[in-house]
Amino acid sequence: MGGNPLQYFLGFFLLLLCFKAGLGSNFTVGEAKVGCIEREKQSLLHFKQGVIDEFGMLSSWGSVGEDKGDCCQWTGVQCDNRTGHVIMLDLSFKILRGKIGPSLAELHQLKYLNLGFNSFQGVLPTQLGNLSNLQSLNIQNLGNMTCENLDWISHLPLLTHLDLTGVNLSKATNWPQLISQMPSLIELYLSFTHLPWTIPTISISHVNSSTSLAFLDLSSNDLTPTIYPWLFNFGSHLVYLDLSSNHLNDSIPEAFANMTSLTYLDLSSNDLNGPIPDYFGNMTALAHLYLLWNRLKGEIPKSFSNLCGLQRLFLPYNYLTGPLEKDSLACSNNTLEALYLNDNQFKGSLPNFSGFSQLRELYLGFNQLNGTLPESIGQLAQLETLDIASNSLQGTVSSNHLFGLSKLWYLDLSFNSLTFDISLEQVPQFQGQFIMLASCKLGPHFPNWLQTQKPLQKLDISASGVSDVIPSWFWNLTSHLYWLNISNNCISGTLPNIQAISSLGMDMSSNCLEGSIPQSIFNAQWLDLSKNLFLGSISLSCGGSNQSSVGLSHLDLSNNRLSGELPKCWEQWKDLIVLNLANNNFSGKIRNSIGLLHRIQTLHLHNNSLTGELPSSLRNCTELHLVDLGKNKLSGKIPTWMGEILSGLIVVNLRSNEFNGRILLSLCQLKRIQMLDLSNNNLFGTIPKCLNNLTALIEKGNLIISYDEPIYNRSWVHSYVDNTMVQWKGKEGEYKRTLGLIKSIDFASNQLTGEIPIEVTDLVELVSLNLSRNNLIGPIPTTIGQLKSLDFLDLSQNQLNGGIPYSLSQIAGLSVLDLSNNTLSGKIPSGTQLQSFNATAYEGNPGLCGLPLVKKCPEGKFGDVSPTGLSSKKEDNQDDKNNIGFYGSIALGFIIGFWGVCGTLLFKSSWRYAYFRFLSKMKDWFYMTTMVSMNRIRRSLQR
Prior knowledge:
- By secondary structure, this protein is of the alpha/beta class.
- 13% of the residues lie in helices and 23% in strands.
- The strands form seven sheets. It has a 30-stranded mixed beta sheet, with no helix packed on it. The chain has a 14-stranded parallel beta sheet with strand order 32-34-36-38-40-42-44-46-48-54-56-58-60-61, with no helix packed on it.
């Protein structure tokens, strides 16, 4: 069978071409890779059709072009070099949206599927259970994806890694059984999956738990202690366990003692109470222990001295007590890297920290520690963060404490009684980014050692006793700063024309700074220059080159000596949330452009000399919570839109202006209002009866005016609590944290007429009511006793008549009362409450009598309003009906009682005879008893 060698070669070549065509388009001889399978390529393309790829992450996926024909070359796809099958698909962190289609189930040889950290929607396809070769599945999702059941995972016998974080599994009630039956599973992550909060007993009975499971994350669900029986089936196999942010309560179960292999345990953010179990000291493998945000009590167990491999210990935000002893953590002094014990109730002095050679993070703030700062702190060469704020430490901080901390970048010793004694020649070696020393003693001179801290981002030296001029070098530190607080000192001098960065927040309040405010300062984002000596106009702030990409959000220039007109360039400050220009000498009108402040929530213009009417554009500021325009010369009518549009108002202060007209009914739409002050104006007419629509004055609860103001471009939020001037008990004062407790209405010193509407007494949470110095007539509503929360009541200098309602004596908390200079009459109701006030509270009412007045009431003289008296004809009629019913009841009772007894005796002879026999016997018994007693007394006297 001979033949031409060339024929054999051609035949072999043709056979090779056919073989190549059958296997794929990219098969090559030797070490070259085999191209992808066409069927699997189409499956991937079908998957892509359901995906929203806004950023072109899958642009390499396609069927057109030489570079797109081979799916093995696509982004995230990996094929087997020998067979061409897709064995790995990794599309994590690709910012994908859309749906996960079932076509992926066609990739039968797939071993690794990672779609994590995307935002897929819809239902997770159960067809993924067809991927029987799958070893790792990660669908950690940031979108809104659900999974109706988990039965499909039982078809994945080779699966070792499963991550469904963020997928809604609220309907997967049998998840514990399914997980327990997976023989190869090592890692399971089900955080944020809305797991059913109770585990039925049937789910844990007769279950042979997988002995392979080592890593388990069930955090951020609503799990309760019913999870424990299933969990403890895994016994000593678990290495990593995260149960944080669930609803676990009561004490920590003893069964945790069997989990001796654990290296990582997180039980934080639950409701666990009781002591930390002593058996934790037997879990010698522990390297990470997180128990923060619970209600744990007691001391740190001494058995912790056995945890020689402990690296991170987090116990903050509990109620732990006792002293801090070095011995309790002595064994871990070569391994401990982070120690968080802040926000507890530890007492005593700080331990000697020498020997903790690896300690990088030390947080002991917000405890009750005292004594001095040990110099052993300076020996922690690896220390990066040190926080001992808000304790009772005393003594001196010298360079010995800080000199050796070359890696320190975070230092917080604020709110202690520490005195710093560091000279420029003994500068610490560290370069701090965050230095907080509020309420420490740094002064009187400006701390020169700060000039070496070039990378400063946050500096707080408020209330530190500095009474010096700001040195010129200090402003060189602002190039990286995003928060500066030098408030509550006595720092003097003027501000230079610095170039503040756009996200800078500065609090320089309560100092002695003077001169004009430079234009560049307004480039900051958060600015408080209140309670200084600044003067001049701030109109220069307009027209500048504000380079801030965010814009000024908080501006407080109150309590200075600023003058001139208000700025005309509100459009440059369109990001303002808080504007406080109170207690200055500003004049002129409020410009209409103020309506461009669409985000503003607090407006303080109190105590200036502003004139004109309220600009109608203010109605555009719909997010306003507080408006304080008191003590100006504003005029015109109170606009209707204030109540109709600015429905979020909590505080309205228009006192001491020249407003006129009536109190409009639209103000009754302010359902969140807690303080309404319209006093000292020229308002006339009657008090609206609709005041009982002011819901916040009826319902319990206080609306605190506070904001979390982010300092942009940084992961930091500044918490701000609003304040305002309040006329309280005759004195004006600044209220801040207690502002939400004051629920008041003040219409005093106007020209109001008519009666006090009875609807006012529906405002049962009202704390202060002042209607004095008006022309009100009629009686005091008898239901005024409903105002049980009332602390201050002033109805003086009106023309009120009638008696003082008896119910007024039932307001136990009333501490200030003034009913003087009216035409009230009758007796002051008796009771310790009304008699405890000074007689001046009732003077000017000639018809009143009784204590505390000297004038006595004639015998039989009562007040015009009795306990059952009423304040209107309608109520009088009702009272007459009540009296008729009362006397009728007496008559009916008499008839029934009298004839029920006497009638029976009259008509039933047997009862009558028995009754009289009983009376006769009682008479004889009484006679005999009396005579015997008298004879005994007589005989005793004769002896």
